[in-house]
Amino acid sequence: MPKLTVTWPHQVAIGKNCILEKGIFFKYDGTWQQGPSIRIQDDSFIGTGCEFNIRMSIDIGKGALIASGCRFVDHDHGIAAGRPMRFQDGPEQAIVIGEDVWIGANVVVLKGVSIGNGAIVAAGAIVTKSILPNEIWAGVPAKKIGQRQ
């Protein structure tokens, strides 16, 4: 296992035959609770320098391919006036990555997103909406550009 950074080790569960490259940051950003909240299924790949900034949960399906530099964030800050934003908790919504999903380099996946089985997300995309199975998405913000046949 390469060097990883994990804030709460009991919050991370990694399946069999996974390949994790160096410099991955598993940051559980909530208060202590039973885990795991970051669940990676069998045969998945996670590239160098990925960050998982999770308060609620993320599930990564079997055989998922996540390229280098990707970011996953399942929460926001509040934006009410009169109180510094850094002290405000915002909405939290789980992230779900299906089986056999390919996420290109430097993709950002935000709270509440589900990516269906067999979907592809192009490098550099920012995903703010859920993606159906076998769809191909790209752009900022990400939009559907095709369908796997």
UniProtKB/TrEMBL annotation:
GO molecular function: acyltransferase activity
A Pfam entry, by short name: Hexapep
Origin: domain of life: Bacteria
Descriptive protein name: Acyltransferase
UniProt xrefs under InterPro entries: Hexapep (IPR001451), Hexapep_transf_CS (IPR018357), Hexapeptide_acetyltransf (IPR051159), Trimer_LpxA-like_sf (IPR011004)
Annotated keywords: Acyltransferase, Repeat, Transferase
Organism: Hymenobacter bucti
